[in-house]
Amino acid sequence: MLWLNAKDEDSLRQSFGNAARRILQEHPSAQRLSSVDLKGSLGEVVEAVKGWLSLPKNTRWLVVYDNYDNPKVAGNTDVATLEIRKYLPESHQGSVIITTRSSRVTIGHRIPVRKLENMQDCLEILSDTSRREGLMRDPDAVKLVNELDGLPLALATAGAYLEQVTTSLAEYLRLYQESWLKLQKRSPELSSYEDRTLYSTWDISFMFKNRTDFRPSSYNCGRTSTIRTSGSNFFAMAI
Taking residues 164-171, what's their average pLDDT? Predict the structure, then answer.
């Protein structure tokens, strides 16, 4: 799983550089990347990462393009606008999620999602997606919902994971908290609570997915999801 800051072009290109270093740490012999000077042209690094993601058998990955709030569209005269399409992988494999506060982003399938305030609604999402009975009265389920702060996408991701495993809710909560702590050290640029909550649930699921054929609905292979945020509301969209 790779997280890229799509706030502007410079930030996105720097994120590709960080992603390349992480890929090489985990896959030292990675094709296309091992021969690229990571301190050289960021344009070459971007193309190398995109090429690695497009390798025929490299299908188990998720790339998150976060904070795409200033898209290059007709009428937007800001010189800092970003055309994100040229930074997307060219193959139809793996999964892509884009987060944005802009209603003018039209890439992919838009899924509006708002932060939930009602505990019962949160527990219902967790119960429905995990297909586990008795969660409405389970104190560990309540603790997990509180940790996920009413974010529907995070709840659905956690539920999809729990459907596939025998892990208890208490154990999942421990894994989530461990992932959160690692994330603070590994990606301090993820400053908002919402970003870290979503990334932590995705991280747990993708660690499991890399060991199995786990494919919850949030991770449609070869599709792009766009998550839209607006103020305190949280939205999600997929390509």
Answer: 89
